[in-house]
Amino acid sequence: MRQVVSIVAILALVVSCSTYGPTFAGDSNGWQVGKSDHSLAVGSLTRTFTVYVPAHRRLNTAGVTQPWPLVIVLHGSSGDASVVEHQSGMDSVAEAQRFVVAYPNGTGGAFGLYPSDWNAGTCCGAANRDGIDDLRFVSDLITTVGAHLPLDTRHVFVAGFSSGAYMAYHAGCQLAPQIAAVGVVEGALADVSCAPSKPMPLFAVHGTTDPEVAYDQDAPAPPGAVPAAAAALPPSVRYWSALNGCAAKTAKAAAKNSSADVQLVTLTSCTKADVSFYTIQGGTHGWPGGPDAPGSQAPMNELKVSGLMWTFFIAHIR
After folding, report:
1. Which of 101-105, 221-225, 228-232, 247-251 has the highest mean pLDDT?
2. Which of 72-81, 187-196, 257-266 has the lowest mean pLDDT?
3. HSE of 75 in the Cβ direction (CA atoms, 13 Å)?
4. Which residues neighbour 51 within 8 Å (Cβ) at sequence distance 6 or greater?
5. What are phi and psi of 312, to 5 degrees?
6. Which positions ≥6 away from 129 have C-beta within 8 Å?
7. What's residue 18's pLDDT?
8. Would you say 123 and 190 are in contact if contact means Cβ atoms under 8 Å apart?
9. Tens digits of residue pLDDT in 220-244
10. Nearest-angstrom CA–CA distance, 61 and 64
């Protein structure tokens, strides 16, 4: 009996070294209005994602139908597409503002034995340890969506929460030719070779008492002088302000938020691209303004991140 068990264990180990199970199964060939699940091959792996298509298209001033902007939203560690879809409420924003949302699924190592994560440079989990090519996944996802839907390639954006926010930073660093701006919710930069090939605007938000990703989480050394105006911001935002050649700021209470707990710093005097950063005093680890705790609880619920992020996104063009 022991010998049989050993043989089974060896076979399982061999298989586990050669394949990775997706964290979400299912595929639909339809790209109809509403939600559908899809898959694509990335190297030897089958990667999966969910797409939400609104009921109506955008029109220009002449009333001519326009191609879809695309927002890619990346889940946090141990999550999946459905988790961040619900957590962010981005479908509702997409329906109102008429853009397509894609929710990719991370990998959890062999047979999904570990929490799903993203290879975001020096982070995170099994995806990083196993060298999963998540940059190629995001790039191929954009191409795949564009092959099935009329896509406005000038308005493609990547956002993420927690480890997904690490990945959003990584995408901004390495996929600049395909992306117009990035949005980071409770994450940090872990790409030590971050050097976007074109200016990359940044929208970011972080709670000061986040127990999962610290407000002052370490980041690579800035690639240039950090403006004095950004000295009190988190290391990743200081990096981006130096990267974008920012020199000045405006600081004010966040628009449509009267609470003293929310502070917006906008760096606009930049030689490359602007940076908007929201601090939530006493904020923890969640999607601010979302339906789930702690995002739905004070002070996190004083900031409606999904709508604000879209407003930032649509003001930028690749």
Report:
1. 101-105
2. 257-266
3. 26
4. 31, 35, 36, 37, 38, 100, 101, 102, 103, 145
5. -65, -50
6. 109
7. 31
8. yes
9. 999 999 988 899 999 999 999 999 9
10. 7
Confidence (pTM): 0.89
- Three-class secondary structure assignment of the chain: CHHHHHHHHHHHHHHHCCCCCECCCCCCCCCCCEEEEEEEEECCEEEEEEEEECCCCCECCCCCECCEEEEEEECCCCCCHHHHHHHHCHHHHHHHHCCEEEEECCECCHHHCCCCECCCCCCCHHHHHCCCCHHHHHHHHHHHHHHHCCEEEEEEEEEEECHHHHHHHHHHHHCHHHCCEEEEECCCCCCCCCCCCCCCCEEEEEECCCCCCCCCCCCCCCCCCCCHHHCCCCHHHHHHHHHCCECCCEEEECCCCCCCCEEEEEECCECCCCEEEEEECCCCCCCCCCCCCCCCCCCHHHCCHHHHHHHHHHCCCC
Residue 308: phi and psi, rounded to 5, are: -65, -40
d(CA 281, CA 247): 24
Q: Is the pLDDT of residue 14 over 50?
A: no
The domains of the chain, with CATH numbers, are 38-219+253-258+272-314 (3.40.50.1820)
CB-CB contact of 38 with 48 (8 Å): yes
**What is the C-alpha separation between 37 and 50, in angstroms, rounded?**
4
Q: Please choose, from the candidates 113, 117, 149, 150, the residue with its C-alpha nearest in 3D space to the C-alpha of residue 16.
A: 113
